[in-house]
Design a protein that fits this description.
single chain, 119 residues, mainly alpha, 5 helices
Amino acid sequence: MPSMSSFEFRECISIMKSTGKKAKTLRELRDLIAIISGESLYHHTYQYHSKRQILEYNNDFAHWAGESLEERVLSEYFSNIDPFLYRNIDELRKALLKDIDDNLQRFPEPRKTIPDKEI
């Protein structure tokens, strides 16, 4: 019987399919997070952890809030959400929605994105 050598993954490639959905405001983002697939939510929150780089933002929502809305405080709230602390994607979804709802309660008229910077 031939001996088997160990197998090691050296690279990971993600194949993405755009949903065509975009948000220009925090309210629109909230509506989308409430209905997007678990796979889409997973992509937007977990992908940064597989890059093995130290980045200013650790998920797409934090990046969008910081760069497109120029809402640094909201960006920090999103960055502080650790997706690995949740048992499933729906718990993560609820945490994101709670942060958005809290922000909308404090600031009922949030900014729109910089043109062409929708998420």
